[in-house]
């Protein structure tokens, strides 16, 4: 927490903390092991040697998070493990909702966006483009609403595939292929969202 | 000179002949090609005669001409060779033929051509309308037309092919197009088909006897195109006489006609239409059968379910009185459903055989239809099993072995159509268990025969547990003998005969071997303890659980009037024995009985009902009533009388047909079982393949499980996800590919 204060991070609303957690190999919230911590900072920028220079590196990380799909997915997936209860397979719904609200809107707004639209079938790690994501902030609202209505904890599979879903889906959800390998939660969501939009 | 002179003479001669012999013979009505409506009867006959005369005249002129030309040809041999060939002119015979064509048939002076073609067509028309005509004269004229060849300049070909055939086909098309419409308006499909068949035969005969055989191909196509292709649906859907009516009345001849005619339609369009229509037809029948089953089901539903709890507000007794009949009717409903389906299958088998020559594609369509409606009935697996139960059970209608065998064989056929075979297995196991344990099986051979049949259909795995059940029964019978030896060796005696069926828990269906608690009285425990000792001595590591709900007991009970031998369930015996030490005027409360026997409420209530509320009331319940309540008090009914020495006290059984609640439970168990099976199947496949695409995996799973049930795609998908969550599988970086994690 002191580190947060010194680096000027608001832990409740700044996803950059999760970037650090992922990059610095933190497996439990707030705990940092020495070796991966140091190695991590070096990998972010070899020139870092003080708290001030750490702080200076943060804006770059924030930008990278929202613009680099591979990095986004890495941090996002690390967050799942970080935030679930120890030993659990799923992430509590409330936590998941908070995290989605934290992660997704800034990434949707960024240009290029880590969530920019890709053709169906393309690898989810395809580089970001300036194209606006097919998924909108309203869609996110629908998703959160849908999750609340189901009231179930979120599996890692759903957590992970949501990002792929956001990247491949078009604004009208027309291109969605029910036959494809999407988790059934996302099948259900598409049905839900189509009904709402109609 | 000579050549030209000869030509001129012939031309003049032919003109004279035309004027003298042909023109006077012109029939009245053939002046135009239309010659449309010829009046019937007398007029038609006259016309036929006139036409005939005309054709004869033509033929006569032709014959004379040919004869003359032949003579001239002989005379002018030299001319032929010396002049014609050298100058590249046609030889005499050819000249003669050409002149006949130009001067007679295509005469400029007289409308012979029009009359000739018109007459021919009109005569054909007359014959089509059913008048008798002289075929020979037509044949002759047609021959002439076939001999005459058009000049090179006109594109060659016989006059028949250029002048007659197209017009003939055009007329035929008009005629049959019109006929199709008029016949359809009459609304009689069999008559329509009969007519079509006749027309085919007539036209084939016509072309063979007086037209050119080359015409037949086109004419046939034309007939099909006019009479069949556009009207397939109209014929089959004809109200009151179409396909449905033919099937309903088993009109094999009509159906066969329909089939053979429809086969003529090109590109299999006729057969396909027939297949679709048949399918719809079968499904309509099937739906009626299903509707019949569910309708009575709804009637029976509430009162059957009422046995459990809903019945209390009803006026006393009324609900109970109704319940057995409702249960019975639900059973008969199930049996009727199967019987109806059998009958329907027989009906269509006969039709297929008699009318459609066992056509495999049609058979496939019919089977598809059966499959679809049988599986539309959610309860088909239960009904089928009940039907088999009814036939393998003792004491139902006396049926000969052959009859039973036929019925079972047919049931296997229906079983093939079933998609929820695992569900059937579940019901079959329950029904078989009841037959075996309550000794209700009519014949061991028949039972084994049925299992063998299922084995042939489904393979070893499917029947493994069923066979295990038989083995248990056999081993139990053997072990009871050795138990008796054991007793005599150890000088152990029991106050009664004990017979034990040892069931392997995994073979027998869950609801049957579900743990039920029961505290045996002292005399019974003595026996069970002894058997336990004997059993433990023979096997190690096995645990015996006593199932009082499955056994029966014979016991002699002394009442005031006389003694009766009672045959009752072990549970009932345990309850009855409690009253042994109770004085006549004393009572036991429900709770006393419950704590003494340790029976679960549902079991105890059923048992007490069978003892105190059913036909033979060996216990008296206060207050009286049909339902057993926890506040009730019971006493031994010493005043019990009955004319029978041996009395069978039936357990007030939950009806054989499942109540909606039980059905739901069964469905849940089936679903649970299926979840395991799907997961096992996914893991099996993935273990083998390591990585696999989503679609391949889904179709492989569906394929492998299809012999037992048809898993829905979403179910498979959910199982895959569950396996991913439990880290048996993972998604790869390729979209829609899974990897197996060892």
UniProtKB/TrEMBL annotation, chain A:
Limits of the DCUN1 domain: 1-194
A GO cellular component annotation here is:
ubiquitin ligase complex
A single GO molecular function, which one? cullin family protein binding
PROSITE patterns to which the protein is assigned, alphabetical: DCUN1
Concerning Pfam families, the annotation shows: Cullin_binding (PF03556)
- One annotated GO biological process: protein neddylation
PANTHER family given in the database record: DCN1-LIKE PROTEIN 3, RP42 RELATED
Biological function: Neddylation of cullins play an essential role in the regulation of SCF-type complexes activity.
- Any idea what this protein is called? Defective in cullin neddylation protein
The organism of origin for this protein? Vanrija humicola (Yeast)
TrEMBL record, chain B:
InterPro entries associated with the record: Cullin, Cullin-like_AB, Cullin_CS, Cullin_homology, Cullin_homology_sf, Cullin_N, Cullin_neddylation_domain, Cullin_repeat-like_dom_sf
Q: Which UniProt keywords apply?
A: Isopeptide bond, Ubl conjugation
Pfam families noted in UniProt: Cullin, Cullin_AB, Cullin_Nedd8
At the top level, the lineage of the source is Eukaryota
**Ubl conjugation among the record's keywords?**
yes
UniProt key word Chaperone: no
Transmembrane stretches in the record are: none
PROSITE patterns associated with the record: CULLIN_1 (PS01256), CULLIN_2 (PS50069)
List the GO molecular function terms.
Answer: ubiquitin protein ligase binding
The processes (GO biological process) annotated in the record are: ubiquitin-dependent protein catabolic process
Q: Where is this region: Disordered?
A: 293-325
Q: Name one GO cellular component term.
A: cullin-RING ubiquitin ligase complex
Domain Cullin family profile, chain residue ranges per copy:
379-612
Family per UniProt?
Belongs to the cullin family.
PANTHER family, alphabetized: CULLIN (PTHR11932)
Provide the protein name. Answer: Cullin family profile domain-containing protein
Its source organism is Vanrija humicola (Yeast)
Q: Which taxonomic lineage does the organism of this UniProt entry have? A: Eukaryota, Fungi, Dikarya, Basidiomycota, Agaricomycotina
């Amino acid at each position: 927490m002191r580190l947060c204060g010194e680096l000027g991070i608001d832990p409740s609303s700044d996803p950059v903390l999760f970037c650090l957690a992922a990059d610095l190999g933190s497996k439990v919230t707030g705990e940092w092991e020495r070796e991966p911590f140091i190695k991590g900072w070096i990998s972010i920028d070899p020139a870092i040697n003080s708290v001030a220079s750490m702080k200076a590196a943060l804006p770059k990380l924030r930008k990278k998070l929202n613009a680099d799909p591979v990095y986004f997915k890495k941090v996002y997936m690390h967050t799942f493990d970080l935030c679930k209860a120890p030993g659990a397979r799923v992430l509590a719904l409330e936590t998941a909702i908070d995290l989605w609200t934290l992660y997704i809107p800034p990434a949707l707004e960024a240009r290029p966006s880590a969530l920019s639209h890709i053709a169906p079938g393309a690898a989810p790690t395809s580089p970001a483009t300036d194209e606006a994501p097919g998924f909108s902030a309203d869609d996110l609202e629908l998703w959160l609403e849908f999750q609340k209505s189901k009231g179930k904890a979120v599996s890692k599979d759903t957590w992970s595939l949501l990002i792929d879903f956001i990247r491949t889906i078009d604004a009208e959800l027309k291109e969605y292929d029910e036959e494809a390998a999407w988790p059934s939660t996302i099948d259900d969501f598409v049905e839900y969202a189509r009904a709402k939009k109609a | 000179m000579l050549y030209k002179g000869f030509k001129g003479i012939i031309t003049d001669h032919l003109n004279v002949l035309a004027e003298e012999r042909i023109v006077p013979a012109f029939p009245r009505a053939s002046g135009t090609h239309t010659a449309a409506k010829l009046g019937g009867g007398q007029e038609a006959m006259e016309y036929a005669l006139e036409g005939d005369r005309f054709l004869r005249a033509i033929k006569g002129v032709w014959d004379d001409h040919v004869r003359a030309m032949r003579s001239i040809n002989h005379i002018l041999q030299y001319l032929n060779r010396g002049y014609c060939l050298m100058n590249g002119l046609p030889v005499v015979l050819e000249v003669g033929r050409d002149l006949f064509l130009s001067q007679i048939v295509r005469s400029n002076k007289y409308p012979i051509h029009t009359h000739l073609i018109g007459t021919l067509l009109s005569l054909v028309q007359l014959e089509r309308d059913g008048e008798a005509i002289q075929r020979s004269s037509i044949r002759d004229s047609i021959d002439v037309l076939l001999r005459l060849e058009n000049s090179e300049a006109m594109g060659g070909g016989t006059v028949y092919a250029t002048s007659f055939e197209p017009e003939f086909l055009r007329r035929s098309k008009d005629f049959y197009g019109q006929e199709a419409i008029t016949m359809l308006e009459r609304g009689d499909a069999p008559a329509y088909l009969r007519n079509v068949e006749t027309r085919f035969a007539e036209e084939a005969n016509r072309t063979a006897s007086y037209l050119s055989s080359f015409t037949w191909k086109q004419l046939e196509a034309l007939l099909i195109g006019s009479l069949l292709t556009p009207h397939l649906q109209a014929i089959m859907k004809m109200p009151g006489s179409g396909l449905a009516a033919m099937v309903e009345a088993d009109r094999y001849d009509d159906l066969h006609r329909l089939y053979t005619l429809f086969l003529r339609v090109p590109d299999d369009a006729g057969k396909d239409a027939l297949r679709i229509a048949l399918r719809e037809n079968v499904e309509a029948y099937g739906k009626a059968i299903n509707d019949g089953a569910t309708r009575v089901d709804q009637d029976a539903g509430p009162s059957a379910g009422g046995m459990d709890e809903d019945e209390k507000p009803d006026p006393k007794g009324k609900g109970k009185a109704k319940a057995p009949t409702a249960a019975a009717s639900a059973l008969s409903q199930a049996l009727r459903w199967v019987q109806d389906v059998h009958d329907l299958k027989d009906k269509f088998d006969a039709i297929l055989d008699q009318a459609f020559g066992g056509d495999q594609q049609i058979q496939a369509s019919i089977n598809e239809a059966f499959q679809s409606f049988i599986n539309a009935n959610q309860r088909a697996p239960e009904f089928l099993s009940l039907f088999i139960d009814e036939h393998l059970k003792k004491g139902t209608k006396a049926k000969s072995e052959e009859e039973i065998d036929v019925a079972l064989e047919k049931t296997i056929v229906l079983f093939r159509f079933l998609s929820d075979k695992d569900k059937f297995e579940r019901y079959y196991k329950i029904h078989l268990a009841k037959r075996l344990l309550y000794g209700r099986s009519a014949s061991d051979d028949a039972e084994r025969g049925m299992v063998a049949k299922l084995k042939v259909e489904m393979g070893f795995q499917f029947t493994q547990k069923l066979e295990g059940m038989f083995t248990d029964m056999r081993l139990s019978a053997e072990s009871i003998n050795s138990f008796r030896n054991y007793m005599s060796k150890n000088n152990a005696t029991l106050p009664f005969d004990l017979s034990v069926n040892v069931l392997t828990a995994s073979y027998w269906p869950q609801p049957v071997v579900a743990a039920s608690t029961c505290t045996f009285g002292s005399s019974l425990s003595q026996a069970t303890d002894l058997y336990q000792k004997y059993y433990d001595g023979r096997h190690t590591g096995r645990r015996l659980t006593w199932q009082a709900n499955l056994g029966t007991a014979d016991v002699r009970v002394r009442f005031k009037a006389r003694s009766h031998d009672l045959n009752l369930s072990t549970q009932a015996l345990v309850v009855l024995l409690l009253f042994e030490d109770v004085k006549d005027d004393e009572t036991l409360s429900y709770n006393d009985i419950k704590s003494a026997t340790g029976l679960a409420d549902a079991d105890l209530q059923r048992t007490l009902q069978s003892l105190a509320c059913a036909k033979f009331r060996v216990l008296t319940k206060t207050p009286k009533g049909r339902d057993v309540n926890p506040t009730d008090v019971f006493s031994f009914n010493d005043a019990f009388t009955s004319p029978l020495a041996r009395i069978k006290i039936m357990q007030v059984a939950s009806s054989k047909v499942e109540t909606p609640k039980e059905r739901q439970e069964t469905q849940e168990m089936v679903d649970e079982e299926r979840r395991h099976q799907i997961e096992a199947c996914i893991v099996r496949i993935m273990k083998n393949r390591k990585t696999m695409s989503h679609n391949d995996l889904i179709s492989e799973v569906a394929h492998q499980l299809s012999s037992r049930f048809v898993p829905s795609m979403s179910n498979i998908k959910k199982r895959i996800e569950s396996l991913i969550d439990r880290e048996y599988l993972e998604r790869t970086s390729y979209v829609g590919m899974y990897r197996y994690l060892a």
